[in-house]
Design goal:
2 copies of one chain form a homodimer.
Chain A: H1 16-20, E1 24-27, E2 30-35, E3 40-41, E4 44-45, H2 47-61, E5 66-74, E6 81-92, E7 97-106, E8 112-123, H3 163-166, E9 167-171, E10 188-195, H4 203-209, H5 216-219, E11 228-235, E12 244-249, E13 253-254, E14 257-265, E15 271-280
Helix pairs in contact in A: 2-4
Chain lengths: 284, 284
């Protein structure tokens, strides 16, 4: 059998995601970048996209190239446009290196404002042993052609989000109640996920994947903005080609905050990333 | 009914834990401390105790006093003895402030070595609304008098750990197979937990609580050292007086790493803290 790849299919290293996360080294540990308006939700720059941009800078600043664990604290809202990233190497080791990175932009008064700060440990995913004793199971939900994405709605949502044009997102119908005005009340969200241009997932795009679905808060009946305070990702394996399955769960909505756990599974049924975020909720 | 409190019962602010996590401000944002040998496991300083020491420094450096989310990357192994903590304030806001802290010690050659670096967001737990929509349930396991701790063993373990003298730790018998040479194979560990001197839990001691149980790796049949690479805690509520219940779960042991999730429940059945760590495993 011959598999036909469309001539337009983007590849890892040559895709919109790669161009929009590019960083240019200005000086030792200092990088310029330009946050694209293509990864916004209404006007907010997606937190996972920001993580990928910072991840690119750290992959250059550290002797290892794969993010193993990245912890981000979101300080102020980023905007599309120029930004500078300053990195600092905390420790370099044989198998792991740790560093930090901060992204800055100028505010309307010309003052530099820090948007996000991350601490991260990097390694080499390809050097890890093959043992897998995972007891977690992949999420069970319908095949992609029976799931639904933003493109399947009757009319485009007004003030819509340009990130939806860049994602292949097909949501499990059982976590879509919110879109029909009938949220399930369960803190769950599941979807098939890829990049719309067909670029396969890699460790860097997993940083985007953990924060690319609608928030579980929607299924909990909360329709407002749920800003991320802190997000930590563990990348556990290089993903196989093909679409990802992402499963989000919230177990504790209390005191105006919630946690959101993500699992990302690849086409080979391997758990390739796990994340947890703390987000703020404004209850009506 | 009258509840009799022993005259020797320690209190929040006046206990060994408080004395051993004390920091002294040397300069703006710089703190001296002395890591106690009382919180070691064999020779290693417990990672949760270290987190509490750094948490004390950040509570002083930031305008808010309660840790909401703390992300720690462990760089090199700490030793009992003097240490210096350097903090940096990233952002102060009305409800949340974010900062970072690093703990340094001198190595045998007199060089300063960084042991651990944390990024943390602090707030005021008492200012949060009362809403609780938690779907998570407290772990179910036997009452304390039918659980077992290090003191219940026939003989003290040689090279034993001084931290065990400072903890009230009573493990669920169903997660104790490892101690009898028959690990369950399930990545679970559950225990009643308190401080041995009767000091009640507070947000700071929750940073200790999430890393105070034997690792889930023991029940997975791994007997070696499982060093923490990264640990993030979310403190969600001020704990009620009385013993805590701590439940650990590992779902993904693969490629020489595992994640360990902790839930900490207080005596009022409230989920007061959640944590996740990435740890390294050396398989035999």
């Amino acid at each position: 059998m011959t598999q036909v790849t469309p001539a337009t299919q983007a590849t890892i290293g040559d895709s919109e995601f790669d161009r929009d996360t590019a960083v240019t080294r200005r000086d030792e540990g200092v990088y310029d970048t330009d946050l694209s308006a293509g990864w916004t939700i209404t006007n907010a720059v997606n937190g996972g996209y920001l993580l990928a941009v910072l991840g690119r800078a750290l992959a250059d600043a550290l002797p290892h190239s794969d993010p193993f664990t990245v912890s981000a604290h979101y300080l102020t809202a980023s905007r599309p446009g120029p930004a500078v990233i300053r990195t600092d190497v905390a420790r370099t080791g044989r198998t792991l290196s740790t560093g930090q990175a901060s992204l800055f932009q100028y505010d309307d008064n010309g003052h530099e404002v820090e948007r996000i700060r991350v601490l991260a440990s990097y390694g080499d995913l390809d050097s890890l042993p093959d043992d897998v004793r995972t007891t977690a199971k992949p999420p069970v939900f319908p095949p992609m052609d029976r799931c639904f994405g933003p493109q399947d709605g009757p009319t485009p949502v007004s003030g819509s989000s340009s990130i939806t044009e860049r994602l292949m997102l097909k949501l499990d119908p059982s976590t879509l109640g919110w879109a029909l005005g009938a949220p399930s009340g369960k803190g769950e969200m599941r979807a098939w996920l890829g990049l719309a241009d067909g670029r396969d997932a890699d460790p860097l795009s997993l940083l985007l994947a953990v924060d690319a679905l609608p928030p579980t808060a929607f299924e909990l009946g909360i329709s407002g903005w749920v800003p991320t305070i802190e997000l930590t990702v563990h990348v556990r394996s290089r993903p196989a080609p093909g679409p990802l399955r992402v499963s989000l769960i919230t177990r504790n909505l209390a005191g105006g905050f919630l946690e959101e756990d993500a699992e990302v599974w690849d086409s080979a049924d391997r758990l390739v990333a796990q994340s947890r975020q703390l987000a703020r909720v404004r209850l009506g």
